[in-house]
What we know:
Layout (H helix, E strand, L loop, with lengths): L6 E5 L2 E5 L4 H7 L9 E4 L2 E3 L14 E5 L6
Parallel strand pairs: 1-5
Antiparallel strand pairs: 1-2, 3-4, 3-5
Amino acid sequence: xxxxxxxTISLNGQPVTTDAGTLQALLLAHGYDLANAxxxxxxxxxxxxxxxxxxELKTNDRVxxxxxIAGG
Length: 72
């Protein structure tokens, strides 16, 4: 039997209630296209893309999605 845990985290500075257990599940649940170029940090620590499917989330984690900005 699988148990779903709901928690509150911060996603880009906004409180979010989620049952996503991993960073990748959170990103997909919030409509991020994993084929696009962006980076993620949890609690100010960069998370390599290869770890997104397994990086577990915890209550009160701060997740920041960083997208590149063109300019010059």
